Amino acid sequence: MNTINVFINDFPIKVKSNISVLEGCNQNGFEISRFCFHEKLFVAGNCRMCLVEIKGQAKLSASCAVYFTEGMHILTNSSVVKKARESILEFLLVNHPLDCPICDQGGECDLQDQSFFYGSDKSRFFEYKRAVSNKNCGPLVKTIMNRCIQCTRCVRFANDVIGFSSLGTVGRGSQIEISFYIRKLFFSELSGNIIDICPVGALTSKPSAFSTRPWEMKSVRSVDVFDGFGSNIRIDSRNLEILRILPYKNDFINEEWVSDKIRFGFDTLKRQRLNKPYFKSSINFYQLAWTEILNVLSKKLDVLNKKNLPFYLIIGAFCDLKTAFAAKYLLKISANFSSIINFEGYGLTSLDFQHFFCFNNRFQILNDKNLEGCFLVSVDPRKEAPVLNLKLRKQFIKRDFLVANLGSRLNLTFPIFQLTINSFKFLNVIAGKHLFCKFLRKIEKSIAIIGSAFLNVTDENNNRFFLAKFLINSKIINSKFFGLNILSSRATDVAIYNLGLKTKILRKSSKPKFLFVLGDTVFQKDCINTFVCFQGIQGNELLIMSNVVLPSCAFTEKNSLFINIEGRFQNSQKAVSMPKNSKLDFDIILSILNLFDLNLMKKFKKNFLLSQNKIPFYKNNQNPFFSLFSFPVYMTQIKLVNKTFISIFNQNYYQNNLLLKNSITMAKSSKMLLTKSPFV
Ligand code: SF4
Ligand code: FES
């Protein structure tokens, strides 16, 4: 990148040529105050707090809107600049209420910080302050519009980032205010980020209003487990309670956004917690000690084992890598422990190649200037990975980037080509004859994103064959580029596939006699004669059907390791302690192994220590082309493709897993969505 020579406060400095004066100064340690500027938003230049003096220019300039030129001489702290900032702040404080002691932003408010440096201790204004009515933004975002300084960050975030265009400024001059142009529900999967964007306390979190002060909390870094994207988060807690979850900046993954599910849905972790092992006899649950419950479990398994009946293991959506590794050994306690299954509608058995279950191009591909097209198949990125959808939208806004969808109709907050679902169109797409495929063939680089619903097939190999044909005919994979990406919606999937744990769909006809459910997951209600052992954290519909209940801990209560859909290993730190009498998932499985086979236990411990030194377990050094064609093709008739191929993940966004169904905030949001009214 080109650099140029400039002077900042008389220091000769080399800066990049394509950045604003404000960014250049900040990068070189000359902090410039700002309100309306934000790295991820378009520049507005309306607060004037970032004024600097440029030698040779008669007036002060807004540094966020001026770019460096060779030899430029900038003064960031001259007396003229200081005087200008003091005046601007005085104007802002004319109408800003002095309610810092009861404001939730107190302690982390930009206006408070700037007042400390440039504010005055007395006012020259003796009129009434103006009053602005609060707006109803639903159950997640609280507004106190008297505090608004009209920086328009929220307006730019809503319009440019999440695609909600009804928020804007109304009125002029001293009557200007932020409002909705039309009465419309403020809905976005990422709406909570508007709270972080606001530099003052005008927009704050409704669920955690008046609950804490920033200096009372301790923070740890963790990972969002409510989807497979692996957004980095910061968990703020006080004593034993989690008080808020915020995004942790990571430019490679979530930038500085995080979905509403993890930001607000964590209240579920306080509700209906299991704190003792339980055993169900007829319809009643009885509390037992850990040793007693493990004996009950071992006896039951012995009986079933003698009868040679199949056992099944279900791994829930929030299982970490360490627990999944232990679960692999759980399968070895009996030859009857047949396989891992799930009820979430898909299974995967061909795990030889990572390319068939990972987002192979990594999220950075969406910053590639040569990428011109994207084909979505059986996926709704807006619901399954909202931050990924945001990245696609950003590409669409920045330059010519076309997205087409093969599957149910989608609303992705930006225009896409919706391909009609019928077998004729589908055949055309496979053969590369569709108009969009022809377009893809002409461009240099394009990718395909395939959703979990695609895996919901009767014949996995057969569908992979169709996929391969489609990708080659559309030139999404070619000799130079491999553009296949799989988007899994569960945080645990890539980890269990990496460990070689095959998953199958449990057919209704299977009638399992024993199910070990590891963590919260979707569960079929018709397993009436099945003995269910549930290892989880809270009372829910799954618990009612269980015979043995083993209380474990949530992802916020342990140090763990997750793998996101890119195959990236990420640590999650413990934020709070687990309830008394609960145990770590890993320790519970170890106790079960101990009960059955001491040799197996020793082998597990040895292998676990070995693998810890070797993480990542899986080495991605295989030929991606080989992975796609290394399967037997049994059928090539289009009519044999399961119709569910084109379905998508189509559930209530706010409550699409068992944990979130217990969240009060998510229940309110879900009601808002269903009734289309913010008054909940
Ligand atoms: S509500 Fe906050 S972000 Fe929006 S204009 Fe006002 S101060 Fe800026
Ligand atoms: S930050 Fe530059 S004008 Fe507001």
TrEMBL record:
The keyword rRNA-binding does not apply. One of its GO terms (biological process) is ATP synthesis coupled electron transport. Residues 217-273 form the 4Fe-4S Mo/W bis-MGD-type domain. Residues 80-119 form the 4Fe-4S His(Cys)3-ligated-type domain. Keywords: 4Fe-4S, Iron, Iron-sulfur, Metal-binding, Mitochondrion, NAD, Translocase. Its cofactor is [2Fe-2S] cluster; [4Fe-4S] cluster. GO terms for molecular function: 4 iron, 4 sulfur cluster binding; metal ion binding; NADH dehydrogenase (ubiquinone) activity; oxidoreductase activity, acting on NAD(P)H. Residues 2-80 form the 2Fe-2S ferredoxin-type domain. Pfam families: Fer2_4 (PF13510), Fer4_NDSU1 (PF22151), Fer4_Nqo3 (PF22117), Molybdopterin (PF00384), NADH-G_4Fe-4S_3 (PF10588). GO terms for cellular component: membrane. SUPFAM superfamilies: 2Fe-2S ferredoxin-like, 4Fe-4S ferredoxins, Formate dehydrogenase/DMSO reductase, domains 1-3. InterPro entries: 2Fe-2S_ferredoxin-like_sf, 2Fe-2S_ferredoxin-type, Mopterin_OxRdtase, Mopterin_OxRdtase_4Fe-4S_dom, NADH_UbQ_OxRdtase_75kDa_su_CS, NADH_UbQ_OxRdtase_ferredoxin, NADH_UbQ_OxRdtase_Gsu, NADH_UbQ_OxRdtase_Gsu_4Fe4S-bd. Belongs to the complex I 75 kDa subunit family. PANTHER family: NADH-UBIQUINONE OXIDOREDUCTASE 75 KDA SUBUNIT, MITOCHONDRIAL, RESPIRATORY NITRATE REDUCTASE. This is NADH dehydrogenase subunit 11. The lineage of its organism: Eukaryota, Cryptophyceae, Pyrenomonadales, Pyrenomonadaceae, Storeatula. The gene is nad11.
